[in-house]
Queue: 3 jobs
Job 1
Amino acid sequence: MKRTKAFLRNGRIKTPDSAFTGDEPVWDSKTTDLELYLTKAFGFYNYYLEKSDFLYALHEYMVSDTRYGAQKAEFLTKNYPANEVYNHAGGLARMATQGAPVQDRLRNLIDRLLRQVRVPVVAKNTGPSPIDIARARIPQRSREKVQSLITDLEALIDSWTVKTTGKIREFDIIEALNEINVEKEYHRPLQEWIKKYHDEYWQAYDKSDPDLVEGFSYLGKAALKHRIKALQTMFQSVEGWKKPVKARKPRKKRVKTADKQIKSLKFAPENDEFKLNSINPVTIPGSQHLYVFNTRYKTLNVYHAEGPDGFGVKGCTLQNFDSKTSYVITLRKPKEILPQVAGKTPKQIEKIVSKLTTKKKTATGRINGHCILHRVVASRKSL
């Protein structure tokens, strides 16, 4: 199943409103109240994810679970029971992938869903309809690309609904068509979508449909006219589009999801001497700052990501950290310094470290069984 746009390439969820919602709730050794965690997690997922995103999360979990596999995952997500709430199964699947102890209840739910799903039976004498034949002629890949573009346009309509006055958000349909690079003959679903919304706005504008007049009563005549004109221009652009001749882009290297990246990572879950517990390592990929304490040598390993994509993990080695700003420093009084590292901002931590008399050493990125994953900061804050 294709990754939805709610997820980054490294498997993390996009959080444009993180200042208000916080980052994705993570299950770790410090979490004790499962029901409270579930409440927070479901609230977070319901805010950011839609049906396709929940089904993608469910698909990813089922593929990784040997009890189900790719075939059952594909079958269930394509035939999900209409009477069942998709965000419950998808939310639990995402939590399980992130390490939460919900696998038993999730498996019970998936088993129940699979029992409900049945393969549709087609009558022997019933042939495909003309519409089905026309759709079958469209290659699957082209259909998916056009549908993805329509999903982006749905977001455009949503923005027009929120902003009722002033200039409306524009959409470069030519650039989008060039990007998906699908043959013109397969654009019919896109044209039908544009015409559908154009006709709705027009019937509200000329007052030919009382229901639509009432439905769009929050928009003035000028606002309706702007939207009608924008859709007309968009329709003409689709009709006049010609497939550009361009060189094929090099294929992007596929980034492993966070749970797969940290699969072989070795670290110390806890340490009695310093009374420390490691955070869940699944939060490391994609994050911007990482603080690791080596209990054997009493060193604090400070890592800062070199770019906006954040860290990566390969085996037991941290990748994509800035070698110029990252470092290792010995702590003579770790029990005094570490609590401050856990509660301060990256900038404040740098001020605390600058007052230490021990010298900084070069960071290697290696993490082993003596290392406590002390803290991770997801946002890219200035130092």
Job 2
Amino acid sequence: MSLTAVSVSTIAGSISPKVPAAAFTNAHAGAAAASPGAAARIAAWPLAAEAITVRYGRRNAVDGVSLSLPEGAVYALLGRNGAGKSSLVRCLLGQQRATAGRALLFGRDAWRHRATLMAQVGVVPEQPDAPPGVTARQLARLCRPLYPCWDGSGFEARLRRFDVPADRPFGRLSKGQQGHVALALALAPHPRLLILDDPTLGLDAVARRAFFEELIGDLADRGTTVLLTTHDLAAVERIADRAGILAGGRLLLDEEIERLKQRFRHIWLPSPTPGADAALDALSPRGRVRRNWRVETLVENFDEERFQAFQASPSGAGAEASPLTLEEIFVALTGEGSRQLAPGAEGDPR
């Protein structure tokens, strides 16, 4: 990212109390069937993707992705490397034109109106970059005229908390310090939308914790909308209220995190029993693994009452269920777990 890009992408803000799940529910699906006024309101939210497709040659990097973020939302966009996150984020920022569909910032086309819209958007990129001889304080002076307001004292205070020398050349800062400068620049103005594109990639555990603690503290009192892409799923659970999972360019799910965690379970049976498969089928199993000593099933439509009835039946004797973390759900849907627990899978995977 050039110095110009640093300047243009350094507004940010914070988050007010979490948006109710109902504000998100199937926004685009609902808009299609809703009144024109409802669809217009959704389109005017801080960020919207409308059936975005990005092709490179014959390959679809992004395949018809739609999502919407209302005011105050904290949304985690998750996916493995190559899932299409970077291409989608570039479209959302107006840096790349979608092959099909469109990105909207505050109801306006991001590609056509980027120059004016970015004054309301803050960005912390995956790889912070600036001329190596420019200091953090000089970067702040260059950025300040670009925005209607600028919290210079807050910027300096963050550098002190991060233990970043304000007058040391950017090229002589550690990777973690460079990331902290990018965050401090992004949080100095008061924008409506903040986009964090895997901002802690390559940082050690201490630097990652400091980054997210600063972000959480700053987001506690404001209402800025946030889109976050990251591989740090433990941090996501602390700050995001909704998640979308990309795989192969497609959005596998778009759901409130707490609801997602409530409906996914691992169920173990000590040994196969007659009628167990039919009973588990009612819980929408994604797949089943038979091992020498037990049967393991991943279900995505867990219901406590139905499971208790299953436990009380002869076919469910000894059955146990355990919740999954967001990271475990992600791995089950996109990683080795998705292949091991593919529908109909059997045997003891190696």
Job 3
Amino acid sequence: MSTQTPSGGRARRSGLWHLIKQRFGSGRDSSFQESLQNVIDTHAASGGESQIADEARSMMLNIIEFADMRVEDVMVPRADIVALEDTANIRMLLETFIDANHSRVPIFHETLDDISGFIHVKDLLRWMAQRSGQKKRASKAASAKPTAPGFSLTGGELSLSIKQAGLTRDLLFVPPSMPAPDLLIKMQASHIHLAIVVDEYGGTDGLVSIEDLVEEIVGDISDEHDTDELLVRGGENGVYTADGRVDIEELEKLLKVDFLPEEREEDADTLGGLIFSMAGRVPVRGELIRHPSGIEFEIIDSDPRRVKRVRIHTQAKAAPAVVAPAEAPAEEPAPTPPPEVGPESDPEKKA
């Protein structure tokens, strides 16, 4: 199949490149990002044969935004890191790869703040194949019977610790303030595609893979094993179920509510962070947190560190009407009994 660009595509690209060279060759003082965005907008508005495809325009705008991003903007937070201690065995490592659906698993010693490296699933498969191959060769030498194809590992081999297997690779350690483009270049140069984000005290703050960086430019990269995870579900009768990791901006667009004023936009990025900011602590399961807009957040699932699942009540629950008890009809006073008439009550007879 030919890999050459059709003449129409070549003309569109050359036309855009000509505009970019004219813009940046003029010696103006505007920033690179502003200039490039203006060129893209102007070129897209011109129409005709030179119009930029939506995908290409979206990618160019993503590049502009990516240039201003820092590592902390793209990292996986500490609470979402899937990692294993170096004392775990090969069986647990294999199960972790299957359950997490990741190709790399960080390895730590005792705590997540002491990450020593990571294991790639290819290294694990290679190790398993080598172990199986050694046994096959030994079996063939001892017997003329052919050995069955596939992996053949003993319980003892699966019980070996990660440290004993020696599968760990080195990874990068970077600060959260590092520019994201610099990290991408560093990963390409070092051929190490996983970085641990450390805070000022040396503790683990998050994790960044090269896929995380590339997706900021080209969009989500999904393969046949990925499943679409809905972070917000429902909406019937104004009730939603949301993951604590959902982005506040996405939730604001969905519900058409401004949860944080401009001066407090840096307080939180996720729904869980918003609830933590409102309550001043991590609320417990079953607790209701009311936003000034009237929306209520009901905690479905949480642990001592974070809010996991939330039920959002968008319609303010009306307070139950207090009905005053009906006034009972006034009781008529009992009639005064007539004075008794008898010998003891007759004053004349008493006299």
